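Following up on my earlier thread - several people asked me to post the actual chain instead of describing it. Fair enough. Here it is, all 226 residues.
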Amino acid sequence: MIVSIHQPQYLPWLGYFDKIDKADAFVFLDNVQFKKNEVQNRNKIKTAAGGQWLTVPVMYQFPQLINEVEINNRERWQHKQQQALISNYKKAPHWSVLEAFFTDLFQSQWQTISQLNIHAVKKLVEILGITTPLHIASEMGSFPEEPNERLIAITKHLGADTYLAGSGGRNYMDVDKYERNSIKVLFQDYKHPVYNQLFGDFLPYMSVIDLIFNHGDESLRILRGN
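Reply from S.P.:
Thanks for posting it. Predicted structure:
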Protein backbone atom coordinates (compact mmCIF):
# COMPACT_ATOMS: atom_id res chain seq x y z
CA MET A 1 0.00 0.00 0.00
CA ILE A 2 1.33 3.41 -1.03
CA VAL A 3 0.78 6.57 1.02
CA SER A 4 1.52 10.11 -0.13
CA ILE A 5 1.50 13.12 2.19
CA HIS A 6 1.53 16.81 1.31
CA GLN A 7 0.65 20.20 2.76
CA PRO A 8 -2.70 21.50 1.48
CA GLN A 9 -2.13 23.92 -1.40
CA TYR A 10 -4.42 26.39 -3.16
CA LEU A 11 -5.63 25.13 -6.55
CA PRO A 12 -2.43 23.06 -7.03
CA TRP A 13 -0.55 22.20 -10.19
CA LEU A 14 -0.82 18.87 -12.04
CA GLY A 15 2.00 17.17 -10.13
CA TYR A 16 0.11 17.50 -6.86
CA PHE A 17 -2.81 15.53 -8.30
CA ASP A 18 -0.40 13.01 -9.81
CA LYS A 19 0.81 12.26 -6.25
CA ILE A 20 -2.78 11.74 -5.14
CA ASP A 21 -3.56 9.58 -8.17
CA LYS A 22 -0.53 7.32 -7.70
CA ALA A 23 -1.20 6.68 -4.00
CA ASP A 24 -3.57 4.26 -2.29
CA ALA A 25 -4.14 6.90 0.41
CA PHE A 26 -3.31 10.61 0.50
CA VAL A 27 -2.90 12.74 3.62
CA PHE A 28 -3.25 16.53 3.85
CA LEU A 29 -0.45 17.57 6.20
CA ASP A 30 -2.30 20.54 7.65
CA ASN A 31 -0.62 20.67 11.07
CA VAL A 32 2.87 21.82 10.08
CA GLN A 33 4.21 25.36 9.79
CA PHE A 34 2.76 27.62 7.13
CA LYS A 35 5.23 28.76 4.47
CA LYS A 36 4.84 32.36 3.40
CA ASN A 37 5.15 33.34 -0.28
CA GLU A 38 4.79 29.78 -1.54
CA VAL A 39 1.76 27.98 -2.98
CA GLN A 40 -0.20 27.34 0.19
CA ASN A 41 -2.28 30.44 -0.48
CA ARG A 42 -1.74 31.11 -4.17
CA ASN A 43 -1.30 29.54 -7.58
CA LYS A 44 -1.01 30.56 -11.22
CA ILE A 45 -3.38 30.73 -14.15
CA LYS A 46 -2.49 31.49 -17.75
CA THR A 47 -3.39 34.84 -19.28
CA ALA A 48 -2.58 36.65 -22.51
CA ALA A 49 0.29 38.31 -20.62
CA GLY A 50 1.64 35.02 -19.18
CA GLY A 51 1.21 33.53 -15.72
CA GLN A 52 -0.87 35.41 -13.14
CA TRP A 53 -1.13 34.63 -9.43
CA LEU A 54 -4.49 33.98 -7.80
CA THR A 55 -3.72 34.86 -4.18
CA VAL A 56 -5.80 34.31 -1.06
CA PRO A 57 -4.82 37.00 1.49
CA VAL A 58 -3.96 35.57 4.89
CA MET A 59 -3.29 36.92 8.37
CA TYR A 60 -0.19 34.87 9.13
CA GLN A 61 1.88 35.22 12.26
CA PHE A 62 5.05 33.17 12.59
CA PRO A 63 5.16 30.29 13.55
CA GLN A 64 1.50 29.43 12.94
CA LEU A 65 0.55 26.04 11.55
CA ILE A 66 -1.29 25.86 8.24
CA ASN A 67 -4.58 24.98 9.95
CA GLU A 68 -4.23 28.02 12.22
CA VAL A 69 -3.75 30.63 9.47
CA GLU A 70 -6.89 32.69 8.94
CA ILE A 71 -7.97 34.21 5.64
CA ASN A 72 -8.23 37.99 5.46
CA ASN A 73 -11.83 38.27 4.32
CA ARG A 74 -11.74 42.05 4.57
CA GLU A 75 -10.16 41.96 1.13
CA ARG A 76 -12.37 41.17 -1.86
CA TRP A 77 -10.19 38.28 -3.01
CA GLN A 78 -13.11 36.13 -4.16
CA HIS A 79 -14.50 38.86 -6.40
CA LYS A 80 -11.06 39.61 -7.85
CA GLN A 81 -10.37 35.97 -8.62
CA GLN A 82 -13.79 35.44 -10.14
CA GLN A 83 -13.21 38.36 -12.50
CA ALA A 84 -9.76 37.05 -13.41
CA LEU A 85 -11.20 33.65 -14.30
CA ILE A 86 -14.01 35.15 -16.37
CA SER A 87 -11.56 37.38 -18.23
CA ASN A 88 -9.14 34.57 -19.03
CA TYR A 89 -11.20 31.37 -19.27
CA LYS A 90 -14.78 32.29 -20.20
CA LYS A 91 -14.00 31.33 -23.81
CA ALA A 92 -12.23 28.10 -22.85
CA PRO A 93 -13.77 24.94 -24.39
CA HIS A 94 -14.81 23.52 -21.01
CA TRP A 95 -15.63 26.60 -18.94
CA SER A 96 -18.85 25.00 -17.71
CA VAL A 97 -17.05 22.05 -16.04
CA LEU A 98 -15.77 24.27 -13.21
CA GLU A 99 -18.58 26.82 -13.12
CA ALA A 100 -20.40 25.25 -10.14
CA PHE A 101 -17.10 24.57 -8.36
CA PHE A 102 -16.10 28.23 -8.41
CA THR A 103 -19.60 29.46 -7.59
CA ASP A 104 -19.36 27.43 -4.38
CA LEU A 105 -15.77 28.50 -3.72
CA PHE A 106 -16.44 32.21 -4.15
CA GLN A 107 -19.85 32.41 -2.46
CA SER A 108 -18.86 30.49 0.69
CA GLN A 109 -17.21 32.02 3.73
CA TRP A 110 -13.86 30.42 4.54
CA GLN A 111 -12.11 30.97 7.87
CA THR A 112 -8.73 29.27 7.43
CA ILE A 113 -6.52 28.61 4.43
CA SER A 114 -6.37 24.87 5.17
CA GLN A 115 -10.18 24.66 5.26
CA LEU A 116 -10.38 26.33 1.85
CA ASN A 117 -7.52 24.34 0.29
CA ILE A 118 -8.69 20.95 1.48
CA HIS A 119 -12.25 21.60 0.31
CA ALA A 120 -11.04 22.75 -3.11
CA VAL A 121 -8.66 19.84 -3.63
CA LYS A 122 -11.32 17.30 -2.61
CA LYS A 123 -13.75 18.77 -5.15
CA LEU A 124 -11.11 18.90 -7.90
CA VAL A 125 -10.20 15.26 -7.21
CA GLU A 126 -13.87 14.36 -7.78
CA ILE A 127 -14.07 16.43 -10.95
CA LEU A 128 -10.91 14.78 -12.34
CA GLY A 129 -12.21 11.31 -11.48
CA ILE A 130 -9.43 10.33 -9.03
CA THR A 131 -10.65 7.83 -6.43
CA THR A 132 -7.81 7.83 -3.87
CA PRO A 133 -9.07 8.09 -0.26
CA LEU A 134 -8.15 11.44 1.33
CA HIS A 135 -7.24 11.99 5.00
CA ILE A 136 -6.43 15.03 7.15
CA ALA A 137 -3.40 14.71 9.44
CA SER A 138 -4.81 16.85 12.26
CA GLU A 139 -7.81 14.52 12.49
CA MET A 140 -5.72 11.35 12.68
CA GLY A 141 -4.12 11.83 16.11
CA SER A 142 -0.74 12.99 17.39
CA PHE A 143 2.49 12.36 15.50
CA PRO A 144 6.18 13.14 16.14
CA GLU A 145 7.50 16.64 15.40
CA GLU A 146 10.64 15.47 13.57
CA PRO A 147 9.73 15.50 9.84
CA ASN A 148 10.94 12.02 8.89
CA GLU A 149 9.50 10.42 12.00
CA ARG A 150 6.19 12.20 11.40
CA LEU A 151 5.90 10.86 7.85
CA ILE A 152 6.89 7.37 8.96
CA ALA A 153 4.31 7.43 11.74
CA ILE A 154 1.51 8.59 9.43
CA THR A 155 2.43 5.93 6.87
CA LYS A 156 2.36 3.23 9.55
CA HIS A 157 -0.89 4.59 10.99
CA LEU A 158 -2.56 3.87 7.65
CA GLY A 159 -1.04 0.38 7.48
CA ALA A 160 1.09 1.16 4.45
CA ASP A 161 4.53 -0.18 3.53
CA THR A 162 5.48 2.42 0.89
CA TYR A 163 5.81 6.19 1.03
CA LEU A 164 5.58 8.23 -2.18
CA ALA A 165 7.64 11.39 -1.80
CA GLY A 166 7.98 14.43 -4.00
CA SER A 167 11.13 14.69 -6.10
CA GLY A 168 12.50 17.34 -3.71
CA GLY A 169 12.42 14.80 -0.89
CA ARG A 170 15.81 13.51 -2.00
CA ASN A 171 17.34 16.69 -0.57
CA TYR A 172 16.10 16.33 3.00
CA MET A 173 14.77 12.84 3.69
CA ASP A 174 16.70 10.28 5.72
CA VAL A 175 15.81 7.30 3.53
CA ASP A 176 17.71 4.88 5.78
CA LYS A 177 15.35 5.75 8.63
CA TYR A 178 12.38 4.66 6.50
CA GLU A 179 14.09 1.42 5.55
CA ARG A 180 14.80 0.68 9.22
CA ASN A 181 11.06 1.05 9.76
CA SER A 182 10.30 -1.37 6.90
CA ILE A 183 8.96 1.41 4.67
CA LYS A 184 9.99 1.62 1.04
CA VAL A 185 10.44 5.14 -0.37
CA LEU A 186 9.45 6.04 -3.92
CA PHE A 187 10.24 9.46 -5.40
CA GLN A 188 7.82 11.12 -7.77
CA ASP A 189 9.21 11.75 -11.23
CA TYR A 190 6.40 13.66 -12.90
CA LYS A 191 6.77 14.50 -16.59
CA HIS A 192 4.61 17.54 -17.25
CA PRO A 193 2.35 16.95 -20.28
CA VAL A 194 1.90 19.51 -23.03
CA TYR A 195 -1.74 20.24 -23.78
CA ASN A 196 -3.82 22.80 -25.67
CA GLN A 197 -4.10 26.14 -23.87
CA LEU A 198 -5.48 29.55 -24.68
CA PHE A 199 -3.14 32.46 -25.46
CA GLY A 200 -0.38 31.04 -27.64
CA ASP A 201 2.63 28.96 -26.64
CA PHE A 202 2.30 26.34 -23.92
CA LEU A 203 3.08 27.48 -20.38
CA PRO A 204 3.70 24.68 -17.83
CA TYR A 205 3.19 24.56 -14.05
CA MET A 206 -0.16 26.34 -14.03
CA SER A 207 -2.94 25.39 -11.63
CA VAL A 208 -4.78 22.21 -12.60
CA ILE A 209 -7.81 24.38 -13.38
CA ASP A 210 -6.03 25.53 -16.55
CA LEU A 211 -6.00 21.92 -17.78
CA ILE A 212 -9.63 21.32 -16.80
CA PHE A 213 -10.91 24.51 -18.43
CA ASN A 214 -9.18 23.51 -21.66
CA HIS A 215 -9.80 19.75 -21.72
CA GLY A 216 -12.71 18.88 -19.44
CA ASP A 217 -13.32 15.13 -19.16
CA GLU A 218 -10.01 14.38 -20.90
CA SER A 219 -8.02 16.07 -18.12
CA LEU A 220 -7.17 12.97 -16.08
CA ARG A 221 -5.95 11.09 -19.14
CA ILE A 222 -3.70 14.04 -20.02
CA LEU A 223 -2.52 14.46 -16.42
CA ARG A 224 -1.49 10.79 -16.43
CA GLY A 225 0.59 11.35 -19.56
CA ASN A 226 -2.01 10.20 -22.06
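The chain has a mean pLDDT of 97. That should answer part of your original question.
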